[in-house]
Amino acid sequence: MERLLVLVRHGQSEWNLKNLFTGWKDPDLTEQGIGEAKAAGGKLRDMKLKFDVAFTSDLTRAQHTLKLILAELGQDGLETIRDQALNERDYGDITGMNKDEAREKFGEEQVHIWRRSFDVPPPGGESLKMTAERVLPYYRAEILPRVMEGTRVIVAAHGNSLRALIMELEKLTPEQILKRELGTGAPVVYRLDEDGQVVSVEDLAD
């Protein structure tokens, strides 16, 4: 039995382009992001992959990416489950702030700690640890059981919500996951064994 799980970060958003902390704000994709999502669908099509169910966040950029991928696969009507448990990390008080301006206001070191520490949240926001604490229970309850019964699953979400999943799947330490970069619109293809352990992983980033 095939146990297939594909994770894909959304394509470039309007706020990615403007170098803003986005979090739970809801900008759509740029033209580049649309192209990245279509290209992701093309890569999955070239691998002859099809899906039985899709999961995505409550945010437009992830939903739009998924829709474009499924269109490339000819699976427009696929069952799609949306949940804010898969939303991007909440950046709290620095949401909407330009990253360079944040460095000027708070200092390079402080912004680096907020962005790249595992358990230090920005003011009013979430750390990666807190993000994982909402993503992983949802994954274990709703996504993993579907994969384990042979349902082919695609998840379109965000850099940090996907990092939480990758940390669990690949058994990475907090230090290791913080160094893991996820390209926009780049699918990562996992195949699992009967115990839910990763047998193979293929990162389709260019």
UniProtKB/TrEMBL annotation:
<dbReference type="Pfam" id="PF00300">
    <property type="entry name" value="His_Phos_1"/>
</dbReference>
<feature type="binding site">
    <location>
        <begin position="88"/>
        <end position="91"/>
    </location>
    <ligand>
        <name>substrate</name>
    </ligand>
</feature>
<feature type="active site" description="Proton donor/acceptor">
    <location>
        <position position="88"/>
    </location>
</feature>
<protein>
    <recommendedName>
        <fullName>2,3-bisphosphoglycerate-dependent phosphoglycerate mutase</fullName>
        <ecNumber>5.4.2.11</ecNumber>
    </recommendedName>
</protein>
<dbReference type="GO" id="GO:0006094">
    <property type="term" value="P:gluconeogenesis"/>
</dbReference>
<feature type="binding site">
    <location>
        <position position="99"/>
    </location>
    <ligand>
        <name>substrate</name>
    </ligand>
</feature>
<comment type="pathway">
    <text>Carbohydrate degradation; glycolysis; pyruvate from D-glyceraldehyde 3-phosphate: step 3/5.</text>
</comment>
<dbReference type="InterPro" id="IPR001345">
    <property type="entry name" value="PG/BPGM_mutase_AS"/>
</dbReference>
<feature type="binding site">
    <location>
        <position position="61"/>
    </location>
    <ligand>
        <name>substrate</name>
    </ligand>
</feature>
<comment type="similarity">
    <text>Belongs to the phosphoglycerate mutase family. BPG-dependent PGAM subfamily.</text>
</comment>
<dbReference type="InterPro" id="IPR029033">
    <property type="entry name" value="His_PPase_superfam"/>
</dbReference>
<dbReference type="InterPro" id="IPR005952">
    <property type="entry name" value="Phosphogly_mut1"/>
</dbReference>
<keyword id="KW-0324">Glycolysis</keyword>
<comment type="function">
    <text>Catalyzes the interconversion of 2-phosphoglycerate and 3-phosphoglycerate.</text>
</comment>
<feature type="site" description="Transition state stabilizer">
    <location>
        <position position="158"/>
    </location>
</feature>
<dbReference type="GO" id="GO:0004619">
    <property type="term" value="F:phosphoglycerate mutase activity"/>
</dbReference>
<feature type="binding site">
    <location>
        <begin position="159"/>
        <end position="160"/>
    </location>
    <ligand>
        <name>substrate</name>
    </ligand>
</feature>
<dbReference type="InterPro" id="IPR013078">
    <property type="entry name" value="His_Pase_superF_clade-1"/>
</dbReference>
<keyword id="KW-0413">Isomerase</keyword>
<dbReference type="GO" id="GO:0006096">
    <property type="term" value="P:glycolytic process"/>
</dbReference>
<feature type="active site" description="Tele-phosphohistidine intermediate">
    <location>
        <position position="10"/>
    </location>
</feature>
<comment type="subunit">
    <text>Homodimer.</text>
</comment>
<feature type="binding site">
    <location>
        <begin position="115"/>
        <end position="116"/>
    </location>
    <ligand>
        <name>substrate</name>
    </ligand>
</feature>
<keyword id="KW-0312">Gluconeogenesis</keyword>
<feature type="binding site">
    <location>
        <begin position="22"/>
        <end position="23"/>
    </location>
    <ligand>
        <name>substrate</name>
    </ligand>
</feature>
<feature type="binding site">
    <location>
        <begin position="9"/>
        <end position="16"/>
    </location>
    <ligand>
        <name>substrate</name>
    </ligand>
</feature>
